[in-house]
Amino acid sequence: GPLVGDTWPSLSAAPVATGVLPALFSARAGVPLCAPWDGVETLRYAMSVSVYARDDNRIAGNLSIGQGTEGLSGQSFDIVREDRITSISAFITEPVVGQSIVGEIYTTDATGAPDELFFTTEELVFEDTIPGFFNLPILGGSLLLDEGTYVVVLREAADQSLTLAYTDANFQAGSTWVFFQGAWSNSEDFNFLVTYLLRINLNICIDPQVGFAADSIAPLTYQFTDLSQTIGGTSWSWDFGDGNTSTEQNPTHEYAQAGDYVVCLTVTDSCSSVAVCDTITVEMTVGIEQITFLDELAVFPNPASSQIQVSWQNTGEDFQLSLSNALGQSLWSRNVNGSETFLEIPVSHMPDGLYELTFQRNNQLFSRRIIVSH
Q: For residue 152, which of 111, 201, 193 has the smallest C-alpha distance?
């Protein structure tokens, strides 16, 4: 989180110190995690309360329009793909019990300046004096924003002094706004070249990453496992290639006869639908050695949050044990001595999701599905 000390430099009051300087959020819905900021896309910090943050997470001071003068501090951001804004987050260094703030969203005119009030957040009343990030939910839960440029602002009442934290990193001229004495101006007009810890929280419409695994568990019978990564509201549609379908997440299907089948999985979440297909070869028999080896394996706990304990019967043969994510990327591996029968795999640092634990021995692969849930 932000690096917070006991005190911060503060500028407030008087018209010359009206630089309530918000961060530029040129927010692009659907950018990958930790994408480099290039002037169009903003950084996404996993440690942040916001999914879009341009500040460097350090506090250099705070700015305020000043007690006795009502004002608005705003920041421009671009939506390049329809998305939902759920809330606004701001770091307040000196909250005052009983005082309040509210967020507002404005459309912009041809010059990029705030134009018409579009929507507001819920009012937040401070209940203590502890500094930190405060979240202002959108009235009604969320607001759908079409592609375009908007300005998100915080409103400061005339009898209050809004101490919004700033950093001296990532400032860009022409994109931060101050409403003072009846007019909008850019922050650089008042010689303030800093960036606020003021952030926009979006619904993050990222297309689901779809994948699945197919494991033979009996003659003509397959266990299908969804390996997809999605964002909320997920549904599944399986086509087993023989005229049969399923809407279960991890179905089991028995084929009428052996052969090659094209299996397709379509995953739909709150953003979109994505399909992926693969060909499987269905056989009348399943390997006896595979059944025996898997029956002797014990994986506990599953789901796991901190570590996985794996045990097996002594085979007398060396093998390789590896753990991969839903994209097939190897996250952990180890060559196991044939005399070993137990080991532990740390998973506390891994994101929630479905993983595959793979045993490779004598050119044969055996696998187990592992769920990590913190």
A: 201
